[in-house]
Structure prediction request, 446 residues.
Amino acid sequence: MIDRAVEELKAAGISVSTAEEDKIAYCKDFNPLHLHRLLKKETPALPDVVVFPKSTEEVSAVLRIANTYGVPVYIFGGASGVIDAATPYEGGIALSTLALNRVEIDADNRMVKAGAGVVGGRLEKILNRHGFTLRHSPQSLYCSTVGGWVATAASGQFSTGYGNIENLLISLTAVLPDGEVVTEKMTPRRAGPDLKKLFVGSEGLLGVVTEVVMKIFELPEEFLTISVEYDTMGEAVRDAKALMSLKPALIRIFDDEESIRYFDLEKFTLIAVFEGKGAGSRADIAKKMVSGEIAEGYAEKWLGRRFDVSDISKIVPLGFIFDTIEVACFWSDAERLYHEVINAIRRVEGTVTASAHASHFYESGLCFYFTFAGYPEDVEKYYREVWERAIKASLKNGGNVTHHHGIGRLRKSWLSAEIGSYISILKDIKTMFDKRNILNRGVMFD
Prediction:
């Protein structure tokens, strides 16, 4: 069937590649276990063909053909995800969105239309040249795509002030598994159910997002920071909760181990950014509100290093395994959850380091972002055990399964613990949208 599908794709004018180098390029996402396999010259999986559609219409043609022959389709943006959600374990078609790269700015209405394959760093530079910003800046800004943000329900570093991707979304266009194109009239607020939200966090199960319209903001005139030192995580969390009344654009708390890494300081550290009109006065009030010791320069140091993930490329070839686990919780559970998850990770034999920072804040709670590195005898066994213990500790102590990295295959065994009986609704919607189950098979549930 795949041979006949490829013939029809070529006849439809779709850019198609069966070159070995392209298939290897689209054989995985950025899950750490895949890096170890590649270092041993093992590919996690290989698609039969890679396609590069240049428009919504071409995406529609790809899915229509794939659906006709029952060929599986795995969707790729920047492949920066870490949850094993794009790996083409059943071969088939790897669909790259990178050629969907148009950007149109509507300055009057403060919004931008971007193709699903637009890389975040490029989009932000274009907006900045016109005096605007999206203020959506995940750590993967320079290698993740707009479509990927929607598919994984992404969250950026300035989400405390500007919201997550679902809060920035005005409209989107998607192609269903049978090739049908769905879109909607653009409006500041929508009547009836906001059905485009079905695609937010859907990880490619229900359709391929091809175009997104998002809010944009004028570049802020004022930009002020504060840096504060603490003896405990609990003290820092309580101050962060109080600071939310001042509407900071960003708050971040680093535990003592991460403070050593970033600031050469064995303390718990809070940084906050205030921007826009009145930022200076709010920063002054914040300095008087906090209970910790005011410091200088930590915020600036972190802002200068925030996209640097080069440590991964240095330690993985040495036999280490490295990953992050991010979960959300309410304020009342935060201090206990932090200690319990950290201890759960450290108790796994082979762990070299385990640390955390709090990265996203809400009126009702926050997100903890745990980082671990291990040097075990059996990398895969160790990795699975860390995840098992960490997620169980999170669920037991008021936390959830994920905040912004998604479910994929990595977390799917815990999905029902997160969404309860809603999982049956999700499965029903998947069956309704994708009767032949061609899109991202094995993601979220079997």
